[in-house]
Design brief:
By secondary structure, the chain is an alpha+beta fold. The model has no long low-confidence stretch (mean pLDDT 93). 50% of the residues lie in helices and 6% in strands. It is built from 22 helices and 6 strands. A hairpin with a 6-residue loop joins strand 1 and strand 2. The chain is globular, with a radius of gyration of 22 Å. The strands form 2 sheets. The protein has a 4-stranded mixed sheet. Strands 1-2 form a two-stranded antiparallel sheet.
Length: 490
């Protein structure tokens, strides 16, 4: 008996997935991720990356179909998914889970089609849970990019350097089938949606971003484009446009097309309906790259607890996990330069602690981001790779973590009066929620949500949004929900 095709299995699973199949804990985590992501969309409205996303979406067409979050503008599903994807990724404070970034690359696509077709909250949740599940499975089938090579005697930095190609195109597959599920696709239509996504998804740009020179605004891969690709893939399949129906099969299938260094096909189909990568979701407390969450936190706490002024800091030595080329950039012009620069992130952590500037959009106001004290402190910061990171990764692997849980970091801060203050941490607030003591709940996420969104919408709207997301399964029409995410008409 011949083996069933991978594409057939994924397509049939996607076509037959129902709300009743969602485990209770997965449903809760999905709503939390939606909550976090909506806050980030609202927080990105006044940032350069978000503004460009909105402007480009308007050029796609001004159809009165779907909402561009945080504005009174509308566009087609294609345009709105693009804009909202860019908004969600502007602050660089989105979730992390296996295999990497997820929410800004998937949620806006499913959300736009749910609004366009007036789907219920249950239908939206059903499609989104499936979308995240499939996206993570495709990504994991490429091998975990952080430490996956044959020679396990190598350090993490050496392991990572052996992988030349990695991308986030896996998310396009998830968005496409999530939309297809909401629209009632059968297995053949799902195969067409997958096939279209496989031919249109972006190249594996992740490692170009992290190992290249000064990073641009796209951040790994443009989230907006991946969402728009998912929308286009599903709509083409809905129209009946035939596609490659064996995209995950054969020697020239997806893995070969993406020049993937690993081909772990079992990840696509094993434990379907039982294993969900979202159970190991990680959140970001600060609006900076995940690598810098811990050193920023330690620096922030040292300055806060010791009432230190930035001008009194002579030198900061950062002990950190392996840091790639683009993260060493010191040219700060756009907010995307800041969140990807270790030097700026640590300097901003110290400055924010001294002046009480809460993490979120305020960090990227021009007068704050380019403050002379912040830029000057960057020149007094050095780093070295911390062996504790390797030990932490081994512990995570031994505990079966599918994504990084320990985030060790040590800061040595030398003051101009001769004092040296050293502080360390192994786990990181929000980022280490795979450990019971660091688990995240709605109350903690609500604080972050308000930090990000209060500059875009009034308090009464925020209260309404918070309560609605907690009970999203009761929403009768997602178009009504989207009306809550825009400012009042002037």
């Amino acid at each position: 008996m011949s083996k069933r095709l991978n594409t057939d299995i994924v397509a049939e699973y996607s076509a037959n997935y129902t709300y009743d199949m969602i485990p209770e804990d997965v449903l809760l985590k999905t709503k939390q991720v939606i909550f976090d992501t909506v806050g980030l969309m609202l927080g990105g409205v006044n940032l350069d990356k978000g503004k460009y996303g909105i402007k480009l979406a308007q050029s796609f067409g001004k159809a009165d179909e779907c909402t561009i979050v945080g504005t009174n503008l509308k566009s087609s599903a294609f345009g709105a998914s693009y804009a909202n994807g860019e908004l969600a990724h502007s602050l660089d404070a989105d979730i992390l889970m296996a295999p990497a970034h997820m929410a800004p690359y998937v949620i806006p696509a499913v959300l736009a089609e749910a609004e366009k077709h007036h789907k219920s909250g249950k239908e939206f949740l059903q499609g989104l849970v499936l979308a995240i599940d499939v996206a993570s499975r495709v990504g994991l089938s490429q091998g975990p990019f952080r430490n996956d090579c044959d020679d396990k005697t190598l350090t993490r930095s050496q392991q990572m350097a052996t992988i030349k190609t990695y991308g986030l195109g896996c998310d396009c597959f998830g968005g496409a089938v999530g939309i297809g599920n909401m629209l009632g696709f059968d297995a053949d239509q799902m195969k067409d949606a997958l096939g279209h996504a496989g031919f249109m998804l972006p190249e594996g740009s992740h490692h170009r971003f992290v190992f290249g020179p000064r990073a641009g605004m796209l951040k790994y891969s443009p989230a907006g484009w991946e969402c728009a690709t998912a929308v286009a893939s599903a709509e083409m399949a809905e129209m009946g446009e035939y596609a490659d129906r064996e995209i995950f099969d054969g020697e020239h299938g997806f893995w070969a097309m993406q020049a993937t260094p690993k081909r772990l096909e079992d990840w696509l189909t094993k434990d379907l309906g039982t294993y969900y990568a979202i159970r190991d979701v990680r959140y970001k407390y600060y609006p900076v790259d995940g690598t810098f969450q811990a050193p920023v936190n330690v620096t922030y706490n040292i300055v806060k607890e010791n009432n230190i002024k930035v001008e009194d800091i002579e030198h900061i030595q950062v002990h950190i996990e392996y840091m790639t080329t683009s993260f060493s950039n010191k040219v700060i012009e756009y907010h995307t330069d800041g969140c990807n620069s270790m030097y700026w992130c640590v300097a901003m952590g110290a400055y924010a602690a001294q002046h009480g500037i809460e993490p979120g959009p305020l960090w990227y106001e021009k007068e704050t981001m380019l403050n002379p004290e912040v830029l000057a402190l960057m020149e007094r910061i050095d780093y070295e790779e911390d062996p504790a990171s390797e030990i932490a990764r081994e512990k995570d692997n031994a505990e079966g973590m599918t994504y990084i849980n320990r985030r060790p970091s040590t800061i040595d801060m030398k003051l101009k009066d001769g004092r040296v203050i050293t502080a360390s941490q192994e786990f990181m607030q929000f980022m280490s929620c795979g450990a019971p003591d660091y688990a995240i709940d709605f109350d903690q996420l609500e604080v972050k949500f308000r930090r990000n969104s209060k500059y875009t919408l009034p308090e009464e709207k925020l209260v309404d949004i918070i309560e609605t997301i907690k009970h999203l399964e009761d929403v009768e029409d997602m178009a009504d929900f989207m009306k809550k995410l825009v400012p009042d008409e002037m």
